[in-house]
Description:
Two copies of one chain form a homodimer. The first copy, chain A, is α/β, with parallel strands linked by helices. Helix content of chain A is about 45%, strand content about 15%. In chain A, α4 runs parallel beside α5. At the A-B interface, loops of A face loops of B.
Amino acid sequence: MSAPDPTLLSLNVATVRTQWSLEQAIEGCARHGIGWIAPWRDKLAECGLARAKALIKTHGLKVSSLCRGGMFPAADDAGRRAAIDDNKRAIDEAAELGAACLVLIAGGLPKGSKDIAGARAQVKDGIAALLEHARAARLPLAIEPLHPMYAADRACVNTLEHALDLCDALGAGLGVAVDVYHVWWDPDLAAGIERAGKRILGFHLCDWLVPTTDLLLDRGMMGDGVIDIPAIRRMVEAQFYAGPREVEIFSQNNWWKRDADEVMRTVKDRYASAT
Amino acid sequence: MSAPDPTLLSLNVATVRTQWSLEQAIEGCARHGIGWIAPWRDKLAECGLARAKALIKTHGLKVSSLCRGGMFPAADDAGRRAAIDDNKRAIDEAAELGAACLVLIAGGLPKGSKDIAGARAQVKDGIAALLEHARAARLPLAIEPLHPMYAADRACVNTLEHALDLCDALGAGLGVAVDVYHVWWDPDLAAGIERAGKRILGFHLCDWLVPTTDLLLDRGMMGDGVIDIPAIRRMVEAQFYAGPREVEIFSQNNWWKRDADEVMRTVKDRYASAT
Lengths: 275, 275
């Protein structure tokens, strides 16, 4: 197995979200020799799309993904239409930045609902309603299954298998983002990655800490947890995935409290030694 | 769909673990007209097996399960043998109490390990090593898949499908416990319950709160969360499951802080109105 290719490392800006603006993250990537970046839309809006695009170009970076679209289920038609409209804007922004894909997070149960099958049907309908727009923009949509602990409030697509069923049903222009944090536990992971094949549009890295003290904001740096990341890298590379590897760490009590340049150095070191 | 049968309600003593000893829980069940109880082994040891058995008989209760066996993976052979020996003792205790089953929780990764496939193989070997003893005691073993958020540190069997694969591979004397908390998110839940069929040995109730503030100790009372419990009850009853329904709620900041008789009244009310 070859060493992790340093030219494929990407910084998801969520990793330094409390420390840096998007402009600072772009400059930070350039300073640390990280060639890819993945902005979130809130930071992109703060920076301004045109300015972000210019800064990314000036610093010679590439955009591994825009985070994020999705969040389809809603309590009423107006809510569902608003989500689709917002997703179309996200597609346009991602295309303008030349992003490799737009990450789609399904969304959870509408407020007050216990109908997860219904929410899943709304996700399917929502993605279907976006596909023509995405194809016209030549912008791949990457469904990212989230860990089942987010099924209620964040994403009701929780396995690679489910995400691929959506891809099969809806056709061209769709793929998946494989985040080790969300899928590492899945006994069918190897089969799912093989089934995904060329539809792998993104590969995201962090680690699962023991203990995990918060469902959302206690992700670990690669190497600090229990995920066999090299094993999962082998699986995605066996499917000829040769795209960027995005480091995305939500860590309210550790990495978000550290100096961002220290975080960047650690990301680079751990990418090389623990992925 | 018929109303929940009040004679099938069972109190898992973890629901009042901070308030009551096993003796108090037995008396509490009798006082509140709850006909089934599920002890944990730590409380059983405090009470003493013979005394617990006598108290349960005196109060006319039945034992829906003993919690718990399992925890098979270990870093070395001695650890794995110790787990099997302890499980044999748990089988003997459950048989002595006339429990309907012994609940098996797989166990997580051995300390320092990232080999989840290896841990899963150890679970299979561990259950295989128990089966003769369990069959001789005529004591069914119920594999309880736990939510994937426990894969690292508590149980590496995380889906009904995986639990049933183990049942298929290992044969008679094994079944599954279906806890709505652990399986509600699974897009293949209906198929899994149908596949389980007569192998459903237990049905456990609580609810998934939004937000959930702790991975282990923030379970909700039935009706306070997002799980469509009646829908899952329909699925298990369609497989002719007519056994007890165990209420098991770990709730460090709410139910464990309340008066235990209030908890018992709420369990009964919500069992009737929200399951």
